[in-house]
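pasting input
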Amino acid sequence: DAEITQSPRHKITETGRQVTLACHQTWNHNNMFWYRQDLGHGLRLIHYSYGVQDTNKGEVSDGYSVSRSNTEDLPLTLESAASSQTSVYFCASSVGYSETQYFGPGTRLLVL
Amino acid sequence: TQLLEQSPQFLSIQEGENLTVYCNSSSVFSSLQWYRQEPGEGPVLLVTVVTGGEVKKLKRLTFQFGDARKDSSLHITAAQPGDTGLYLCAAAPNSGGSNYKLTFGKGTLLTVNP
């Protein structure tokens, strides 16, 4: 069955370190998204991609970057982790415009 | 940027009660989706509504899209503990074009006590 996976599921890191969160989907979806979920803020879009070599900034992109070298993967990099980036991160993918987004199980990140 | 407001933010009820949660905006949407998120997991789609006035039923859950496509409601009949979770609405813009982004509301956290 097609799926979307995230790794690691839990991560503890220190302020200033670079961290990369992996997202892999086997749906063959063109569109992929990264969100962070925090109490009081809901799901906020970090970056998104409409296809290979395409990346776009979301509403909370500062301090994050993504690259899309193939259809299946969209890794999210925190260039220099900050305590404000402690959050739960979700990756999602979709077929097209307004279509269902399929979410991964999330990565819980703690920055000390 | 569209703003989706969900109410109530928190809801705790007893098993067997009925409830309604709301998703409102001042913007018109091309479609609206409802997701449910259980603890430790990602959101999962429950339903998509597209037409103004549309009503969809999923077992004990009834979803309605407002006539003007600016709001939606989710009604649960005879709630069960298994209905516990965070209910999120998400909307697609009405502007058309190649915009695949959804805007999410902050959610309603529902707890159904046995």
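fyi The first strand of chain A starts at residue 4 and ends at 7.
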